[in-house]
Amino acid sequence: MKPQTGTLPVFNAVVLAGGRSSRLGGVPKAGLILEGKTLLERTLDTVRQAGRVAVAGPAELEDVLPAVPAQCFFVREEPAFSGPAAAVGAAVDALCRAGAAEDSVPPWTLVLACDMPGAAGAVQALLAEASSEPGTSLMARDSSGALQPLAALYRTDELRGAVQSRSSVNGHPGGLENLSMFRLLARVQWREVAVPEGSTADVDTWADAGKWGISPGSRAV
User: Fold this and answer.
1) In this structure, are residues 109 and 154 in contact, taking their beta carbons and an 8 Å threshold?
2) CB 154: neighbour CB atoms within 10 A?
3) Cβ(21)–Cβ(198) under 8 Å?
4) Are 179 and 86 in contact (CB under 8 A)?
5) Euclidean distance between CA atoms 25 and 219, whole angstroms
6) 8-57 pLDDT per residue, tens
């Protein structure tokens, strides 16, 4: 990882927290507790320097937070559970509309899934890269060489353009249902950023959760 040589990039954040958690028996990942905090709390701590944070997921996720940060609001893809691209589209659209009202849409948008307990290392690497060599969207590459589109720092105009290219005639994100992230990003140019080992490891199963010391009973109720 390159040392940070510039100022911190100005960014909004999209946090994805609305999947079915089918391999966890329907237990919401966002409410799993690690070291006294839910995964959603930990993720919001990781993006606390963002100007605005759109959490894509059901409004009842507020119940797993002791307090909702002032810059944070909830959005929901339509239809619900229609995939990460649809959730990103809904969140990006809401963030851009909110910023346009104040003429303050930042140049960067961080997209982060809430089921990566070690994501702080990946986010730090992405922000450092953007500070030292700004200009191009950035996507995390894990130690196995896999790209992580849900741990990425995108140029807002490019990500917004990708969403708009599939917008319906009424101006709302459409055509994103069950679309893969890489298809959404087909026209977005990005550079790969190597991130610390384990920083993008996600919690999909109870076996994954156990690696972090999260047990089936370790969840917000």
Assistant:
1) yes
2) 27
3) no
4) yes
5) 13
6) 789 999 999 988 888 999 899 999 999 999 999 999 999 999 999 999 99
34's enclosing H/E stretch is strand 33-34
106-138 burial string, b = 16+ CB within 10 Å, else e?
Answer: bebbbbbbbbbbbbbbbbbbbbbbbbeeeebbb
Q: State the burial class of residue 204 (Cβ atoms within 10 Å of its Cβ: 0-12, 13-18, 19+).
A: middle
What the chain holds in terms of domains, given with CATH numbers, is 11-210 (3.90.550.10)
The secondary structure element, H or E, covering residue 148 is: strand 147-155
Tokens of 182: 């890489």
Dihedral angle computed from the Cα positions of residues 55, 58, 63 and 68, in that order, rounded to the nearest 10 degrees: 20
How far apart are the C-alpha atoms of 7 and 26, rounded to whole Å? 41
| Helix or strand (DSSP H, E) at 42 | helix 39-46
Q: Would you mind telling me the total number of residues written for the chain in this entry?
A: 221
